[in-house]
């Protein structure tokens, strides 16, 4: 997501490597690059100004005192300043005996979707029993949307056919208390921060009810207007945090750098896919690493651990070791991989991905679907023993899976190669690539 | 040459804009304009003479309007050149030059139209595309209402089969503006669209407006799906879609350029619908998009009511932004 900042900064850092020391002359040129990179990433203009001034000052001031090479020094300063910008301490979502959280934001920022994701999240992480309350009484079918998400997640939705959001929220919270729910999420209508009437509605809600958290949902593609939006909501409501959505797009999400610095409200979550588990806690250290191109192996592992079924993984590992790995296992593996969400996202998190050219790899989930279809068109016997698959069987499989014999051949070849590679890993002839 | 002569030369206007529309524009852009122009007005009061500080502050104003970074940098270079070539020292005079140069970025000597490209032999198909949450469905409803007021027989197609509640949302709009909505249980948007276009031909509809699911432009599978949708439409009605409108949220920052580029690679984007311009966002990214990707803005969303969609007019847009200044 931050390719551009990281690439440009890396370019700037590379330039510094050529210099013996940081001087007023050479740093200006580098700071220009840094400045443009940040502006292109939608970081707030004032934040950029302050940031580049700070970095420049520190880089020049430390010149004599430090024994580090200029480039290393520059990276360290950038890292410190970026961490400073993003806020060092992690602030988790509230977790009490009974919690009420309201989501607010502009139209189309992703409030309803993230109510769904958060409900799923607190149930998994906090072992809570969530309830959704539908207070978007304006947008056509907004309540329907929440209900559909609720059905998918098996989380009930409290709604009323009245035009009073305050009343609905109040009743919803009451309903939760009386029926054994301990985590209430209030979905609200999207509104402009300058819409007095609708902002008043939120204020009335805040006056009448007690919220443990009020989260501002922000689209990560937002530009310089972010500051008006954030301040607009923050001036009217006691915001406790923000959620940055759509970070799986190719926006550079510079708003992440501005939010915290300009308002002192922590970023609590980031939205990373359209799926209902596409949400992660925000971590500034990792984000800084990502900006500077150091990758994010930790969040990769965490995400994998969260999603993957450990039993299946253990079983597969055992079978791999015993050399019994067959197409049936392969199919199970594919299903596991699919749960991780778009593979591009995973690739990007690997350190050095940009250098290996992996940041721009496009993987079509349909390719995986095709492989699946081919294996599913095989008989159990064929899956256990792919060697018996000859011409006529191949034709049948191709027909059954809507692919061609070439596709079937390719899959069988790839599978054979994979098995060979795995044997080599096992025998210790080859080092694991990571 | 004065700025208004220039405008008149560039815009061979086919019709006079109704006063009502101008008023709506003014109202919608009021917040935008107040901030933007008061800043520029203040700037020329603060600096009587053109200095380096003046340029720096001007750059800030333009960047804050989300006009693309590179567009602004090039613009500043050109402006500085003109200033030194024409020996401009008075900031009052420079204001006119600034507006002038902004026009040039957008127009580039072309004559642009915001009219919908109608199909003379059968239904006109308009496809709406864009990333998530920009306002596709709402814009469709507004355009449908506008066309209905022009006595067109309009059909809406619920092609967003992915997002929860999307079909119901369009359906609800259909009821409000009394417009038929074609939908299906199928999860495949192409199949709904196929059926809808068949009906449109049989029942001789004038215009078919097709909704699609929001998709981030870097999602390969979703972009391929869009490619397929496009093909299906073209196979059903020759030359269709006659318009493919990319919906862009006015709050969008630099990513707008990437959106325009990626969607244009897949579909023949004929114009932009710039939504949510009634907030404080300036939507300046459309200038960069026009300059870099050459897609003009056709429609502008200025509110949540069904009437709040009007044809884009660069003259009104920039005039609105700079009203106090000129």
Task: Explain this structure.
The complex is a heterodimer of chains A (434) and B (326). By secondary structure, chain A is of the alpha/beta class. In chain A, 56% of the residues lie in helices and 9% in strands. Chain A has helices at residues 3-17, 24-40, 45-61, 70-86, 111-125, 142-153, 165-178, 196-208, 226-236, 255-263, 284-291, 297-307, 310-321, 327-339, 343-349, 365-376, 380-384, 391-401, 405-427; strands at 99-105, 130-135, 157-158, 183-188, 213-219, 241-245, 267-271, 279-281. An eight-stranded mixed β-sheet of chain A has the order 3-2-4-1-5-6-7-8, sandwiched between helices. In chain A, β2 (130-135), α6 and β3 (157-158) form a beta-alpha-beta unit. In chain A, α16 crosses α18. Chain A is flat. Chain A starts with a helix and ends in a 7-residue tail after the last helix. Chain B has 326 residues and is α/β, with parallel strands linked by helices. Chain B is built from twelve helices and eight strands. Chain B has helices at 3-10, 19-46, 52-64, 69-85, 91-107, 136-149, 166-177, 189-202, 220-236, 255-266, 285-293, 314-322, and strands at residues 124-129, 154-157, 181-182, 207-210, 243-249, 271-275, 297-301, 309-311. An eight-stranded mixed β-sheet of chain B has the order 3-2-4-1-5-6-7-8, sandwiched between helices. In chain B, α5 packs antiparallel against α12 (314-322), α6 runs parallel beside α7 (166-177) and α8 (189-202) runs parallel beside α9. The longest helix of chain B is centred in the N-terminal third of the chain and has 28 residues, at 19-46. The chains are: A alpha/beta (434), B alpha/beta (326). Chains A and B meet through α2, α6 and α9 of A and α3, α4, α7, α9 and α10 of B.
